[in-house]
Design brief:
Number of helices: 4
Region (Disordered): 125-145
Oligomer: single chain
Shape: elongated
Helix content: 55-70%
Structural class: mainly alpha
Number of domains: 1
Largest sheet: none
Number of strands: 0
């Protein structure tokens, strides 16, 4: 069976280091989920603004000009945060916190475990799987697929 070198702990790396890297990886995964929610917020806010614009146009066509004007000037195209539409929030997050987090997580793995990812999870898999049982293979190629 081929050894999965990219998920084998390098010599000299202790348990606490692997656990710490596992926590840092888990934190990055949470940041990725937060980023996804931020993009969902961006999409939903844009959809809301465009849909509101349609509703405002329909109010105006129906003769409710004063209410349509009020909505138009108060909400259509408005910043969601001071000076920012959501694309600017996404860009600031991506270029700042997110980029820094990804870079530093990579630097830590480079320095401590030669870029290997998910060592904690790989070791957990080895511990929890039933060796030799179908559906519990170490790698996909071990199952012939």
């Amino acid at each position: 069976m081929a050894i999965d070198e990219e998920h084998v702990r390098p010599d000299g790396v202790d348990d606490l280091t692997v656990e710490a890297l596992g926590n840092i990886s888990e934190a990055l995964e949470a940041v990725e989920v937060a980023r996804g929610h931020l993009y969902a917020f961006h999409r939903m806010s844009g959809t809301a603004d465009l849909t509101l614009g349609k509703g405002v146009d329909q109010l105006r066509e129906a003769g409710h000009t004063e209410l349509a004007d009020r909505l138009q000037t108060a909400l259509v195209g408005r910043n969601v945060l001071h000076g920012r539409w959501t694309f600017q929030v996404v860009e600031e997050y991506d270029d700042g916190y997110y980029a820094d987090f990804k870079q530093l997580e990579q630097e830590v793995r480079d320095a401590l475990v030669a870029v290997r990812r998910h060592l904690y999870e790989a070791e957990m898999k080895e511990d929890r799987r039933t060796h030799g049982r179908p559906g519990h293979e170490r790698r996909p190629d071990a199952a012939g697929g």
